[in-house]
Amino acid sequence: MLRGKRAVITGGGTGFGQALSVWLAREGVEVDFCARRADDIQKTCSIITAEGGMAKGHLCDLTLPESLSQFSSQLLTFDKHCIRYQFW
To answer: Which of 7, 26, 56, 66 has a CA positioned 20 to 30 A from the CA of residue 75?
Structure first.
């Protein structure tokens, strides 16, 4: 049901957002997620790719409008059907 879909997760670098990103990748979803720290992005991507999943991490601080604008612009370059979850 989820295989081949694309998910955009905010807060995917740690905690529940990271767990959701990993779970969705295991289900065959291509995951785009954002996090405030580059090391958190690397950790989540490493977990997902080590299990054969596909993920792309984006550096983004959702409290900064310009950062959010850049993140959304990067996401608009894709055309796959997207499912959506948000975690702050």
So the answer is: 26
